[in-house]
Structures are given as structure tokens and as C-alpha cells.
């Protein structure tokens, strides 16, 4: 009995122990699941930075009255003190009349019917206001023009909106082989829906077109003779329309006759709005109002492809934001290639792992057309993140020179499919929902001396100032010297034969003080130090949500000494931070949860580009160079934590390595954040960092980041030499000069070191000197992820750096706070730059002396003619 009781107690204890373990595991699993839900799945703090689009209700459109029409065949839709907006209600084309210059700009070329080159779809395009690309039910990409699929079918309505007009297009083919005339219909329905609504004579004509159906009992059938008679069908369709017989009623009768539900037709309802706003025409497409029916899924829309287009007999050019900026001359004969470039580069969530070209990105959402004595300058103010610009010249598919934006309406991905027989194909995968925003493009009209790329730059700068993205800087006696100091670098090390990645100090904080003192001794005092690899494990640092200053560099105490040395000489100290690109070596980052994803569900993982092949080939043996992109959703949390750690760090500011440049969406299916939303999140975080008490230096910023910095590094120093472009211009620099300090790429890491050529380019583009230097020789990091820094030892570059600085400062010190009012490309390598304060700079790139406006400019040299506000000539 005792033994049995003992066994029972033992068994019960064992059972209880097992039960406790199970309960513990359940609680642990529940706790972990709760942690995941609260920290990842349900985390939505980012949503406070997203705004909803506002839609204006319209009313019945009636033209404004006027004594005389300035545009033949059109009526007045809106007017203000500067502009008049005209439209043709039948064709839906528009024209803008400028009262200042008496010029008219058309949405479609007014002489397009005379174009002998355009035919077929290219002729249709000239008559269209937009072009849709969509995927049908078989996932085939299809193009649809609003002219033949809406205008010609009279499937358009017009509404009056404030200061303008809204056209709503129903794009699609609603017709059956018999049009709206039902092939089969019951006697009762025929009488009720059609005959009763016609005159006696019309009803008799219509009824005589039907006979008793031999195949469907109780139905009338359209007679065979009428089905094959186009003229007869046309007359019947007019009677049907007069009776008010609808598509829905047609479908109901077809369904009743066949017994099956009528297939829904593929159609797209697209609202297109035009408004006058001061000297601008605002064109917008509120995507929330777009409707899709049938199996079609919209992918993109090309907007106003021929607005302001120039013909073959006209002189002019197109401005495109290709890198620093490019001009494409009208009728240049380069018909084999179109200009096609994404604004802000390609979305990381759309590009493949391998990139075949290394290009300068388009960082400004603008384009322009110069014709005769006037110009049209366009700014994409919403939807810029989803846009790419397309430009072409006459002589190819038509006789016009034109540039226009194309907007992505929903994301697509190509998924590789492999069959059992070894056959493969790329299948498009579409995002479920359209992006919700109001695509907006503002077209401004410039005249006379303002009708040039210089005038466009001035106009854009003023616009950015009005929007608070730029503000005037004060003149200074010296330009800055931008110096990247290479600090901690991850390198393969070992302890007792066990390998690990450790931090190698290329420049300690104490050694950096020696470098600073060396430059100060050469009268280079206005230093902007950007310290690379100063925290969290060196250059390829851990995720930036806390700060641990590298002890191998000297720790916080030595960093404070460096800052004090710089402050006492009027210099500044910045710490380099990568918020969006998180190295694979990051220890405190949940890459599966926190990274942006492709729509296919894979985490976005990228690598640096091989400098020889220009391909993204992964780590090239250095795992730390691979990185994930932080989702905009979790960027908010990282920056909030980083800000709190930043308060006690002895820095004047932080240098954003990627946050002004990288703009990635997150395609995870349960929570898609499109690129436009990502921009709103990033700009909100830039504002928070700016308000942290630290200054911001931004690397290669897109325009939306301008408002948050007074120091810009690595601005585009040129354009991509696409075949179609003709001239390279410093448009980007013309916009920001006099607004902020900026520099180009590190001089000591450039491919070709021609000192005089570099100086001339720096003067033309207004670039301050920029070097990347280290205390130790760059050979020390030959076998590391930073082996691209092949020449950084400061002793080797001190003399050249000092000489370049003083030579450039000798000129640019006079125009530091002055805007560029005009930039001219003259013959034979001569440039002429005028500044707001009256200074004029002549630059001669050629190997011969040149004379312009009575000024002699020596070969490969420059002359500064100082203005009234400067010092003498």
C-alpha cells in the first residue's frame, strides 16, 4: 500500500513538472508572440507622418464669357491676372494664354495633323492627354490612349472646379459587335426599355429590325441583314442612345439570353484636373478617384506628353535633371535613343541585385522646354518619387521635340518561373492596390531673359525658398574645406587563432588633432570634419539606434578635445551615420522584421558595386559591405532612440551618409509603404534630427532634404553622357549656390587628377575642396571592406590640398553668399558665370587664349571680374 502511494505521488509530481514545463513554454511563446506583435506587426507610429489627399467636388461646367477668344476652337475655362486657360470640350485638349507675353502653350501640337512622320498609335499619341499602361487578365502589358479609348467614344465628362476644369475619362471599349443594340431581347424588355421611349415612327423602324429567335424561346433576335449592315447598325445605335438604353441594361439582356453573367469590360475611370495658380498651370490626377473594372490592373500613366512641344522648324532645347543637369537641343538628329531616367534613382524595392550601370541620379523633380523667346518650366510637386522623365527629339516617331513625366500607379515585380522542361519566363506580379496620392505637376511660363536654363534655375530657387526648402546664407570670408577623416575600419583579426572582425584605427581622435593642426598651420581654418567610423564598430557600423564611441579611437574624452580644437578655430565636427543601409555585421538588428521587402516577400539585401565592372556583386569577400535597407516603418523608432543618445556626444552635428539620398519603399504585402509615403516619413525624421540641437551635413541630397542642412557633400559634378544629350550644365549647383555650402566628391579619390582641370570645374560649379584622408597609410586597409579608399594618407595630399584650397578660395570667397544669375556655354570651351552681387567669372577650358566682352582669358585659366559689392577688378 505504501509503495503504491509512493508511486502515485511520484507520478503526480512528474506529471505536474511536465505540466509546468508546458505552461512555461506556452507563456514564453505567448510572451515572444506579444513582443513580436507590439514591436513589429502592430507598430504604426510612422502613420502619424502620413497625410490624406483632399478631393474637391466639382459642378456642371459652363465656359466663362469673354469678348474675344485668343485660342481658335476653344472656350475659356478659367482666368486670373496672368493666365487664361482654354479648352476644347470635344477633344479635351487645353491651351494656356500668357497675358504678359501674348504667347499660347498647347497640350497637343496644334499642327499635328500635318505631321508626315507619325502614323498609327504615334498619331493617336499626338491627340492624347495621357497614356495608360496596364496588365490584362493574362498578365500582358497593354497600352491605352485616352484619345481613341475615351474621347472618340464620347466617354468624357467635364466639371467646373475652383480656378479650373476637371475632365473625367472612362477609358475602355464598351462596345459589342452590334454596339449598344442588343442581339437578343424579350418582347417585354424591348417595349419597356426602348420602344416606349421612341416616337411611333422610330419604334416601328427599331421593331422591324428583329425577328422571332429560332434558338432562344421567348426572345427576339436582331436580323442577320441588320447585323451585317454598318449603316443600319449606326442608325439603330443612335436610336438606342436617344432612348437612354444603358450599358448596364445591355449587359442584363445579354445575361438573360446566355444564362451566364456578362463579363465585365476592362475600363479605367481617370480624373484629370487643370487649375490656374498665379503664373502656373497646375495639372493633377487624384489617384484615389481612379476606378478599375474588369481584369485590367493599371501600372503607370504618361502625362501630357506633348505639352509645349517644339517642332522641326523651331530652335530651342529641353532641360532634364540628369546629374548636375543636361540640355537636349531640338532636332539634334539623335533619334536612336530616348532620355529616360528615374527621379531620385530607382527604388531599391524594384531593382535587381545586379546593376549594369553606375549613373548620376536625377535629384531634382524638374524639366523644361525652351522655345524662341519663351519657356515652360515644370516642377513635379507630388508623385515625384514615383516618376521618371522621358524626352525625345524629332525625326523618329513624330516631328516634335518633347519631354514629359511618367508616373508609377502600382508596383510590379518580375518573378522568374521555371518549367519542368527547363523553360523559364519572367511573370509580372502586381501589387494589389493603386498608390493613393494626388499626382501634381506645376507648369510655369517664362519669358524673355528668364526663358533660359539660368532663368529656370532662378525660378526654381525662388520656389524652393517660398516653400521653406532653401534660405539665403550669409557671405563669409572663406569657403569651407571638407575633410572626411577615416577612423575605425572593420578588419579581420584573431585571438589565439580564432578569427573575428575587429576595429582597426586608421586615425585616432588624437591623430586627427595633428591633421587639423597641420592644415591650420597652412591657413586652412574653416574645416568641416566628417569623421568616418567613429562609433558602433567602425565605418560599417551597427544599426544606428544607440551610440557607443569607439574606444580604439580614443573614446569620448579625446573626441571632446578634437571638437574643442575645431571650435576654437571656427571649424565644425560631424560624425558620419548610415541610418538606412544596415551592414550585415550589425548585431542588434532584426533584418527579417525591420528591413524593407520586395513584394515577393524577400528581404532587400544589396551590396556595393565593383569599381571595375560597376556591378553589385555582393561583399567581394567582405561581408560587412553587404547591407539591408531599413523599412521606413522602423526608421522612425531607430531615430527616436538615436536622438536620445546623441545629446551627450561631443559633436557639432552628424553627417547623413544615406538619409538624404536613399528613398526606398517597403513592399511587404501586409503593410505596403510606397515611395511617396516613404518620402514623408524621411522628411519628418530629418526635421526631428534638425531639431535635436545638432547640425546636419547631408550626402548627395535629393531636393526634399535641402531644408534640413547648410552643408552638402558629394553633389553631382557632372551628368551621364547619354547619347541624346548635348550639353552638361551645373543646374543643381545654380539652384543651391548662395543658399548653402557644398562640395563635390573627394579629390584624392578621383579617377583623373588634373589639378588645373579640377580647379576650373570647382570654380564653374562653385565647389569647395573635399578630401578623404587618414593618419595611417591606406595600404593598412587594403584587405578590408574599405579597400576602395586607395590613397588617403594625409602627408601625401597635404601640399595639393592646401594649394587647391587657396586657389579656389581666392575666387569663390567673393561669391559665397551670392546666387548665380546666369550661366552661359560659349564657343570653344568658354564659360561665363554671373552672380547676384555683380561678380562675373570667365573660365577657359580650351588650350588657347580667348577673349570675351573685352576680357582676355588665358588658356586653361580663369578671370574674375569683381562687382560693385566686391573688391576692385
Description:
- The protein is an alpha+beta fold and 873 residues long.
- The chain has four domains: 59-174 and 267-451, Beta-galactosidase, Chain A, domain 5; 184-258, no CATH class; 481-577 and 637-660 and 675-816, Glycosidases (TIM Barrel); 826-873, no CATH class.
- Helix content is 24%, strand content 28%.
- It has 17 helices and 47 strands.
- Strands 1, 8, 9, 13, 14, 15, 18, 19, 21, 22, 27 and 39 form a twelve-stranded antiparallel β-sheet that branches. The protein has an eight-stranded parallel β-sheet with strand order 40-38-37-36-32-31-28-41. Strands 6, 7, 16, 17, 20, 23 and 24 form a seven-stranded antiparallel β-sheet that branches.
- The protein is flat.
- InterPro entries: DUF5696.
Amino acid at each position: 500500500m505504501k509503495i503504491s502511494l509512493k508511486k502515485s505521488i511520484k507520478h503526480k509530481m512528474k506529471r505536474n513538472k511536465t505540466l509546468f514545463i508546458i505552461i512555461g513554454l506556452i507563456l514564453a511563446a505567448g510572451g515572444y508572440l506579444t513582443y513580436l506583435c507590439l514591436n513589429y506587426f502592430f507598430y504604426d507610429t510612422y502613420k502619424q507622418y502620413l497625410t490624406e489627399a483632399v478631393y474637391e467636388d466639382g459642378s456642371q461646367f459652363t465656359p466663362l464669357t469673354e469678348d474675344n477668344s485668343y485660342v481658335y476652337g476653344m472656350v475659356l475655362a478659367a482666368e486670373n491676372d496672368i493666365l487664361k486657360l482654354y479648352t476644347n470640350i470635344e477633344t479635351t485638349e487645353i491651351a494656356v494664354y500668357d497675358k504678359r507675353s501674348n504667347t499660347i502653350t498647347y497640350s497637343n501640337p496644334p499642327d499635328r495633323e500635318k505631321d508626315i512622320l507619325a502614323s498609327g498609335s504615334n498619331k493617336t499619341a499626338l491627340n492624347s492627354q495621357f497614356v495608360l499602361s496596364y496588365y490584362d487578365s493574362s498578365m500582358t502589358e497593354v497600352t491605352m490612349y485616352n484619345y481613341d479609348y475615351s474621347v472618340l467614344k464620347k466617354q468624357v465628362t467635364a466639371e467646373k472646379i475652383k480656378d479650373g476644369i476637371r475632365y473625367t475619362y472612362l477609358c475602355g471599349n464598351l462596345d459589342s459587335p452590334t454596339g449598344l443594340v442588343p442581339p437578343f431581347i424579350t418582347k417585354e424588355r424591348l417595349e419597356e426599355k426602348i420602344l416606349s421611349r421612341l416616337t411611333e415612327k422610330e419604334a416601328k423602324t427599331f421593331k422591324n429590325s428583329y425577328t422571332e429567335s429560332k434558338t432562344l424561346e421567348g426572345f427576339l433576335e436582331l436580323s442577320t441583314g441588320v447585323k451585317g449592315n454598318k449603316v443600319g447598325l449606326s442608325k439603330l445605335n443612335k436610336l438606342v442612345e436617344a432612348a437612354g438604353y444603358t450599358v448596364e441594361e445591355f449587359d442584363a439582356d445579354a445575361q438573360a439570353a446566355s444564362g451566364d453573367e456578362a463579363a465585365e469590360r476592362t475600363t479605367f475611370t481617370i480624373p484629370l484636373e487643370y487649375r490656374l495658380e498665379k503664373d502656373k498651370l497646375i495639372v493633377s490626377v487624384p489617384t484615389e478617384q481612379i476606378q478599375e473594372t474588369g481584369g485590367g490592373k493599371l501600372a503607370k500613366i504618361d502625362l501630357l506628353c506633348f505639352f509645349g512641344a517644339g517642332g522641326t522648324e523651331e530652335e530651342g532645347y529641353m532641360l532634364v535633371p540628369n546629374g548636375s543637369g543636361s540640355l537636349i537641343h531640338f532636332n539634334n538628329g539623335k533619334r536612336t535613343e530616348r532620355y529616360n531616367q528615374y527621379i531620385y534613382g530607382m527604388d531599391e524595392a524594384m531593382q535587381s541585385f545586379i546593376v549594369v550601370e553606375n549613373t548620376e541620379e536625377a535629384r531634382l523633380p524638374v524639366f523644361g522646354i525652351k522655345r524662341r523667346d519663351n519657356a515652360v518650366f515644370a516642377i513635379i510637386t507630388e508623385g515625384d518619387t514615383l516618376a521618371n522623365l522621358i524626352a525625345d527629339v524629332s525625326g523618329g516617331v513624330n516631328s516634335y521635340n518633347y519631354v514629359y513625366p511618367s508616373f508609377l500607379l502600382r508596383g510590379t515585380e518580375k518573378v522568374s518561373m521555371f518549367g519542368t522542361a527547363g523553360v523559364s519566363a519572367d511573370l509580372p506580379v502586381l501589387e494589389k492596390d493603386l498608390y493613393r496620392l494626388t499626382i501634381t505637376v506645376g507648369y510655369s511660363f517664362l519669358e524673355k531673359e528668364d526663358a533660359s536654363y539660368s532663368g529656370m534655375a532662378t525660378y526654381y530657387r525662388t520656389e524652393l525658398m517660398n516653400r521653406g526648402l532653401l534660405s539665403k546664407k550669409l557671405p563669409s570670408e572663406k569657403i569651407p574645406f571638407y575633410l572626411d577623416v577615416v577612423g575605425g575600419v572593420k578588419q579581420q583579426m584573431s585571438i589565439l587563432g580564432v578569427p573575428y572582425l575587429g576595429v582597426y584605427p586608421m586615425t585616432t581622435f588624437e591623430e586627427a588633432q595633428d591633421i587639423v593642426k597641420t592644415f591650420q598651420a597652412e591657413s586652412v581654418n574653416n574645416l568641416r570634419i566628417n569623421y568616418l567610423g567613429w562609433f558602433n564598430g567602425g565605418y560599417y557600423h551597427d544599426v544606428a539606434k544607440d551610440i557607443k564611441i569607439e574606444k580604439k579611437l580614443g573614446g569620448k574624452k579625446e573626441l571632446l578635445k578634437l571638437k574643442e580644437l575645431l571650435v576654437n578655430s571656427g571649424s565644425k565636427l560631424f560624425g558620419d551615420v548610415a541610418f538606412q543601409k544596415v551592414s550585415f555585421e550589425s548585431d542588434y538588428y532584426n533584418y527579417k522584421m525591420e528591413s524593407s521587402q520586395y513584394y515577393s516577400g524577400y528581404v532587400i539585401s544589396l551590396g556595393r558595386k565593383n569599381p571595375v565592372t560597376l556591378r553589385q556583386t555582393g561583399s567581394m569577400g567582405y561581408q560587412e559591405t553587404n547591407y539591408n535597407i531599413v523599412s521606413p516603418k522602423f526608421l522612425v523608432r531607430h531615430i527616436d532612440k538615436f536622438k536620445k543618445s546623441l545629446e551627450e556626444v561631443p559633436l557639432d552635428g552628424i553627417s547623413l551618409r544615406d538619409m538624404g539620398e536613399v528613398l526606398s519603399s517597403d513592399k511587404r504585402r501586409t503593410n505596403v509603404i510606397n515611395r511617396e509615403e516613404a518620402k514623408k516619413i524621411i522628411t519628418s525624421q530629418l526635421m526631428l534630427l534638425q531639431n535635436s540641437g545638432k547640425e546636419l551635413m547631408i550626402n548627395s541630397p535629393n531636393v526634399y532634404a535641402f531644408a534640413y542642412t547648410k552643408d552638402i557633400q558629394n553633389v553631382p559634378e557632372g551628368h551621364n553622357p547619354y547619347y541624346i544629350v548635348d550639353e552638361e550644365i551645373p543646374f543643381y549647383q545654380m539652384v543651391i549656390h548662395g543658399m548653402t555650402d557644398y562640395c563635390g566628391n573627394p579629390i584624392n579619390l578621383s579617377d583623373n587628377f588634373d589639378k588645373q582641370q579640377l580647379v576650373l570645374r570647382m570654380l564653374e560649379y562653385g565647389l569647395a575642396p573635399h578630401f578623404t584622408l587618414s593618419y595611417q597609410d591606406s595600404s593598412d586597409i587594403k584587405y578590408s571592406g574599405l579597400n576602395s579608399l586607395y590613397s588617403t594618407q594625409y602627408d601625401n595630399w597635404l601640399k595639393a590640398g592646401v594649394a587647391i584650397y587657396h586657389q579656389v578660395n581666392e575666387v569663390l570667397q567673393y561669391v559665397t553668399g551670392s546666387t548665380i544669375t546666369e550661366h552661359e556655354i560659349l564657343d570653344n570651351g568658354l564659360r561665363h558665370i554671373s552672380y547676384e552681387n555683380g561678380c562675373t567669372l570667365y573660365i577657359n577650358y580650351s588650350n588657347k587664349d580667348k577673349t570675351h566682352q573685352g576680357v582676355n582669358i588665358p588658356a586653361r585659366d580663369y578671370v574674375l571680374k569683381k562687382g560693385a559689392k566686391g573688391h576692385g577688378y
